[in-house]
Amino acid sequence: xxxxxxVIGLGRFGGSIVRELMSLGAxxxxxxxxxxxxxxxxxxxxxxxxxxTTDESVIKxxxxxxxxxxxxxxxxxxxxxxxxxxxxxxxxxPQITVKAQNDYHEKVLRKIGxxxxxxxxxxxxxxxxxxxxxxxxxxxxxxxxxxxxMEIKASDKIAGYNLIDLNIRAQYGIxxxxxxxxxxxxxxxxxxxxxxxxxxxxxxxxxxxxNRFVKKAL
Length: 218
What we know:
CATH architecture of the largest domain: 3-Layer(aba) Sandwich
Number of helices: 9
Strand content: 25-35%
Shape: elongated
CATH topology of the largest domain: Rossmann fold
Number of strands: 11
Structural class: alpha/beta
Strand order of the largest sheet: 3-2-1-4-5-6
Oligomer: single chain
Order of helices and strands: EHEHEHEHEHEHEEHHEEEH
């Protein structure tokens, strides 16, 4: 069953999330108050709608509370961002990710119940989309525009194998620099160390290579 998302606000940030989620096989409802932006995504998103999400009756008519994850990517209009988030939260949307303009905006969003708050300058849309599509990616630390350290939960596809069996460095160009197993951390694991189901792998490498590993190996 495909995952379903709503993206509200189709500027550069919201648009990048729509495109990436669609490329990853999700169903996406794209919403914006500007018709020209909605027209741009009509052939890209599963559904594209012109709507003012600060109007509670509009949110009700679209049935947005039926979606598990909504991304509020409204641009410069902080008031619209806050009001939209508040209405969605009051209607019981399980997960709401909101784009914050500044630290004050983030503080307000967290107080009204936003589940995840992101800053576009730190968290690019493509990386966020990949994290939402994979329950295996637990966290990441950006080292540069292209390289990161990610925490990735081992799935049953790789559990029981060791690093020699998986040959991850040769196949994906990434390195496992640590394995978190409960309260224990194995630093610089040797090739013979087995990977157990539920282990958290500390992976370093280029974002494109790590994402390739997540998609194909997990």
